[in-house]
Amino acid sequence: MSAEKKAENVRSKEACEERLLRIAEGMSAKEASLLFLQKQDWDVIRGFHPQRENAAGWLPMKKTDRVLELGAGCGAVTGRLCRNAGTVTALTSSKTLAEAIRVRHAGKGNLTVETGTALAYLKDISERFNWIVISDEQELFQDEEALLALLKDRLLPDGKLVLGFYNPYGLMFLSGCADPESGVLFGSLEGNAAGKDGANAYRGCRALGPVKEALWRAGFDRVRTFYPFPTHVMPNRIFSDEFLPTPGELKNDTYSFEHPRIRLFDEQKAWDRILADGEFPRFSNSYFLIAEATWSS
Q: Alpha-carbon distance 132 to 14, whole Å?
């Protein structure tokens, strides 16, 4: 990517963050949702739609638990974590986003907001947590091996790491949704290295097997898989191997807000066939993993 393109991307990112801060300062979540519907602004929907909280609402936290949220963005999931846990430390990537979180969740006395990268922050702290929740899937794949080792060390005994990510073999991508970040049709499936503007392919789209292997190599010896629908970003249902959907149940095909898409086949019929054949885990659009390192301390 050229220096000019990098500078343009930085300016675009800063403008987006300023827009999210202005929304946090002057809009309710409902008003922000209406803004998305009017303008089809993915940054707004990812940052403010109430359904985003579903990504954390299902986790069995206790009021005494200490939680670290990585990739907190502008705080879409942070509020739910604060309501469910004892204390929450939210790490976000910029001062602008950190201010958006503070403004948005000003009444949360159990919240601490920090700024920086996950890898640098984890190296600087010694505190351990009951839960580490990765709200932005790209945080996990920046320096995977080093980051997973630090994540394991920052968990208390019986602590849990939670991460969600897109499946490149998910039905949404096979049927015509572009990669969330690059906008390239079939980009992750074909292994494309870059998007149309030369940006790196979306790191948050990973096959389940390699992610599990990376966790096991890092010492996470218990890994449970869950299947959010329609995706981990905006789930309205979360399935497991013990509780799988049945034919006719998966009717919501609104997966892609980031980029225009095509429709190569009838997804409802495809889901019904996949469910009847018992192949839902393979074609799930996204995954949630809860990983534990079952050592004694």
A: 27
